[in-house]
Amino acid sequence: MDEVIAYCGLICHTCPIYLATREKDEEKKYKMRVEIAQQIKKHYGQECKPEDITDCDGCRTEGGRLFCKECQIRKCAREKGIESCASCTGYACEELKKLFATDPDARKRLDEIRSRL
Q: Contact 2/22 with Cβ under 8 angstroms?
């Protein structure tokens, strides 16, 4: 599988929500969503029920299923028409810094992309 990197530096095909979307076994899918809701509360302090975890085909999807519809990072990158936040003149903005606090590997990926620009 090709590695699809989100605008923010996350890797879509390793995202638990993306993986749950592809799970065929409904019981296993529900259990995955229970765990995802717990992780959202732990890492982001947001209350979330398993039913709130919708299917997602990745933030670069056009017209497909999308979990992070309200993601400000995604919205900004799409408005600017950039491939990723690595190419933004405002890198790294406050929104990205919040994400990097919980996922420092996202920053490493974007820094690597930025070094090749």
A: no
Question: Is residue 72, in this structure, part of any structural domain at all?
Answer: yes
Classify residue 7: in a domain, yes or no: no
Q: Tens digit of pLDDT for each residue in 27-62?
A: 999 999 999 999 988 887 889 899 999 999 888 888
* Dist CA 26 CA 31 (whole Å): 9
Task: Convert the pLDDT of each residue in 106-115 to its tens digit.
Answer: 999 999 999 9
- Assess if residue 5 is contained within a domain: no
Phi and psi at residue 107, to the nearest 5°: -65, -40
Q: Where are the alpha helices (DSSP H) in the chain?
A: 16-22, 26-44, 72-80, 94-102, 104-115
Compute CA distances 71 → 16, 28, 68, 99, whole Å. 17, 27, 5, 11
